[in-house]
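Comment on this:
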Amino acid sequence: SSCHHLRVAGSAAAHKAHRPARAGESGAMAAFIRIIRNMGIDVGNNVITYNPEDYAKCGAELFLIAMGSSWVLTYFFNYTFIESNALKDRVGYNNLCVGWDSAPARYVAAPIFAAIIAVECRFMQLDYWRAQLDKNATPFQKKVVMFANFSYALSFIGAIGIFAIYAQEWPMGHTFSFVQLVVFGYIAYACNFVETDAKYHRTGAYVYLTILGIFCLLFAVCALTQMAMYDPETGTMGPVPWQMMMAIDYGYFACKGFMGFFRPAAPSLTADYKVVGDDDFKLAPQEPPSA
């Protein structure tokens, strides 16, 4: 087996700004490309550098691919679902997630979402390690990061209900799977500002954080209200006007597009790898070099 020793790449007083992209690292799937490139070990010193934020950005890139491809597939192969579906009956319009709620789009989006869960959980893990290694972080900050990241990782695992629970059969369960991800996602994002010094917060970040929080809260309350108060016998929707619900829904997704821009700057991590023995494998003793 192998072990590795992590350390923060740079002191806490020298947090990195977003470095300029190298050739081939800008545009579509830029974060994904950086992650793949950084998976190779520097043979000279057995070191790998991890930028935790690349994993969060990669999750966003995969989300856009899943969403875009789903709508294309649904439009061309299951257009009747766009015209009539259980979620549209309850909220009065097609939200973005309708695109991947039916076949064949589900067969494409579900595996991509599994990859999103993997990279987002990796981001949570690396961010937690970074907080533990930060000598300037207080015990309170470290506990906040641990709680927020662990909760968000569990939330992402629970979000698989978006695909496991068919919207046409149990709209409330399907919707709740996404709503809880919205709530815990905001908590985890807000904790990035607790974790880092204020001097690394972008101008306007607190205003953005407030607006994002309002949209998250309104979306959660209104979406669940519409699901709970829909009358399937008469087809009567809940009390939230569909225009208001749509503005909140699309407003939330519009705000998500700025998450990466307003996320506080933070250092990367480096890991030194070496092969070690363990319970089921013992390394042979190395012979001293011959004279």
